[in-house]
């Protein structure tokens, strides 16, 4: 009878199901982040190079 009660208690325990939910949600968030980074990454590099070339072409006034 003790083994039967242990199996019934294991059947009612929902801690594992919550863990699986969190793992699935975390994986979805990470996947979405990677998708956004790969989509926007190329444009960000190009824009950064444009800003860098503009800044390097500027002169700095050292006298007043």
Explain the overall architecture.
It comes from Psychromarinibacter sediminicola. The protein has helices spanning 2-12, 15-56. It is mainly alpha-helical and 64 residues long.
Summarize this entry quickly:
The protein has 64 residues and is mostly helical.
Layout of helices and strands:
Layout: H1 2-12, H2 15-56
Organism: Psychromarinibacter sediminicola
Keywords: Membrane, Transmembrane, Transmembrane helix
Transmembrane segments: 20-40
- Low-pLDDT stretches are none
Helix vs. strand class: mainly alpha
Provide the helix percentage: over 70%
**Biggest sheet statistics:** none
Q: Whole-Å distance between the termini?
A: 94 Å
**If helices are DSSP runs of H or I spanning 4 or more residues, what is the number of helices?**
2
- For this structure, the quaternary state is single chain
The average pLDDT value, as a whole number, equals: 86
How many β strands by DSSP? 0
Q: How large is the radius of gyration?
A: 28 Å
**In one word, what is the shape?**
rod-shaped
The SSE order reads HH
Q: Indicate the proportion of strand residues.
A: under 5%
